[in-house]
Amino acid sequence: MTRKSVIVVNPGGRDQIYQSLGNELTAIEPPLWVRLISGYLLDRQVPLSILDTEAEGLGAARAAQSIVSSAPSLVIVVAFGHQPSASTQTMVGASALIDEIKSVSPDLPVLLVGGHVSALPSETLDKTQADYVCQGEGILTSYELWQALQGECELEAVHGLVRRSNGGVVFNPKAPISEDLDADLHGNVWHLLPMEKYRAHNWQCFGELESRRPYASIYTTLGCPYKCVFCCINAPFDSNRYRTRSPENIVAEVRHLYETYGVKTFKIIDEMFVLKKRHYMAICEGLAALPFANELNIWAYARVDTVKDETLPLLRKAGIRWLALGIESGSEVVRDGAEKSFSQDDIRSIVKSIQNADINVMGNFIFGLPDDDQAAMQATLDLALELQCEFINFYSAMAYPGSQLYVQAKQHGWQLPETWSGFSQHSYDCLPLPTNHISAREVLAFRDDAFHRYFDHEPYLTFVEQKFGKDTRQHIEDMASTRLSRKLIDDAAKTIPAVEKS
Q1: Which of 169, 210, 213, 231 gives the lowest tally of CB atoms within 10 Å of its CB?
Q2: What's the angle, vertex CA 54, arms to CA 236 and CA 40, rounded to 5?
Q3: CA–CA dist 112, 37 (Å, integer)
Q4: How confident is the model over 3-45, as pLDDT tens digits?
Q5: Radius of gyration over every alpha carbon of the chain, rounded to an integer in angstroms
Q6: pTM of the full predicted structure?
Q7: What's the rounded Cα separation, in Å, for the pair 422 and 364?
Q8: What is the C-alpha to C-alpha distance for residues 358 and 68, in angstroms, rounded to an integer?
Q9: Sign of torsion over alpha carbons 328, 330, 336, 341
Q10: Distance between CA 469 and CA 399 in Å, rounded?
């Protein structure tokens, strides 16, 4: 019997998620879970292809035509976000793509996999035209569903599958989590991806903006042992598991990407790379020993309380030029509510230590955590200005499905976004949470004003110009000249009498 192929798809939707920022400023990165699922299937002799609609710049209609014309037996749409905490926003492109597929070929089976999907499987099945959704990471589910569609096993035997049946929803037994990442989740399918089309974030290449391509994102761990209220990273894993790959395989992957595709610019996509010292130091020792280590430009995530002064020289020698820190708030009370137990002095000291080691700092801050008020948010902005990180991300607190904040929002009856794009930090219809003291509109307005206050701040611009050059300063000024349109703010402005507007 001829075994029919599978097509694994990364959906697009960047225009709705990021508005105009998605044109040039955001990264286009190799889709991690498309890679992991595809590698698992290939190891089991499943004939497949990959379609990265975002990298290829395909709209939903063109992508659907391409998919249907390849006549697969199964389409696997993988809706994981660029940020681990933001997989819901990718549902915009995923749903639109599935709608287009079904309009062309109604009987073509579609499986939808992702973080949001795993957190809300029944709702996802109800709100999309997917035939099946997956509760879990999707590796085993994808393989067993393909087997079932080939007639090699029963549909009831597919672990992690959620499907419609007799007017209701049936949950199959959950799939076990893969334990051997090197064997099962290696993701070595680079040859199936459009490697020339991926690009790094603009800030990662400050000082040499022309080096954003070629680019690749890799992973060394899955999951996170922490339980931050705003994060949904562990939704597909159903626990706070923390699994690691072998340092040797990671170093070999970097060498392969450098030698085969010329990649020097990397993202380590782990939720927390600088965490288990034995793990990340072994990786850095291997990277530092590579003959091209001085050419590497790598960024990775860390926490203020996991960075150790004595490890920084080796991180830099390994090519780590940026560390992204989850600082979150300038208020110790608010940080404690987000389970971030470190002091202002800890933050100042670690940021300075990182910068002194010739590593740039990406500071991540959140406005609108449950205990925030205007004064606390101002303290967060003041701290950001004081720290003068080389770049920052300002977020609004969002009730991502799969997070504790989502559970709290449902319990308290707080308004949640009516659309999936409403969960995007940069979308027109972005809808953050209110806090115990202020409204969602006030949170969003403060966040947007803070963004422009930071990137228009003359001491910061002077610092950037001295460190990265005039071209980078001009690039930042051009970036900050674009102000996002926000429905929540626009609608509120329409209700203010004209005399008050003036």
Answers
A1: 210
A2: 45
A3: 12
A4: 579 999 999 765 555 444 445 678 899 999 999 999 999 999 9
A5: 22
A6: 0.92
A7: 20
A8: 50
A9: positive
A10: 39
